[in-house]
Amino acid sequence: MNEQHNKGLYWLVGLAAFVIIIAALKEASQIVVPFMLSVFIAIICAPAISSLRRRNVPTWLSILLVVMLILFGISSVAVLVGASLDNFSNQLPNYKTRFAEEMSNLIQVVNGFGLQVSYDQVKGYVDPSSLMQMVANALRGLGGVLTNLVLVVMIVIFILFEAVELPKKLSLAFNDNPKSMDNLESFVKSVNRYLVIKTLLSILTGVLITFCMWVLGVDFPILWGVCAFLLNFVPNIGSIIAAVPAILLAFVQLGSLSAGLVAGAFVLVNLIVGNVIEPRYMGRGLGLSTLVVFLSLLLWGWVFGPVGMLLSIPLTIIMKLAFEANPKMHWLAVLLDSKVEDEKS
Hints:
The chain is mainly alpha-helical.
């Protein structure tokens, strides 16, 4: 009886600690979000810096070159997306009018088959302008974080300089304990590999979607490519969320046939990248169950806003890798995994 009481108390204290940590993170989100972005960028930059250092490029110059490249890329995309968002917001009233026209034509076709549907009924369930405005607001929320770009870049530079001396510090901290060092090194390598490969595949997805939207003549192809890049970090449902506003815009701008082609382009790109390329390089051991993905989006989105939703799956994957590296917490990694059969076999 006493053992059960202690176990219940242990879980109660753990739950209370979790709630306190989440509440503290939400309160400190203005500081935590730029720091998290900096850590993610630093992890992605680390392999390029290591490669330059192996070629005898000084550490300070390696960091400067990589950070300048990242800064140039982010600034260029931010300028293009900002211009697209302004034009997109200005065009929303016209898109709403065009949507009414296209829906009226589509409803006439449907009514031709004997179904009685009115535009007022459809309008009550589907409002493309509000959905597209929601996408624009989410991207502006991300842009608001990037206004702290100077702070983010400074943190990235300090993290990268610190990372050079980190192995020596960890070795001293763990008193050269081989098991602890091996577990930590395995965890760091797994996180680094996941973030680098996922980022490269997300860039590929964004470029392919931008090209497809440009070929099909959909307005603001760069905007939809950036949405596809960002939401590719969210498995299972991210590609669907990225596709919906682009399909609606194609329907409003070009008609139902083009909307179908846009949907086909998203399906094709995500099938190639997600089902062919990603399993080959990422491996199948980093899957999350659909319920965990959805709950992660809700939790981290509530704590950190739009940026939290974009970083929710990488954060959960890192937690899963940390659980796998600790034998006592391995059961949590099993609960988060998408394929229980693989764990048993």
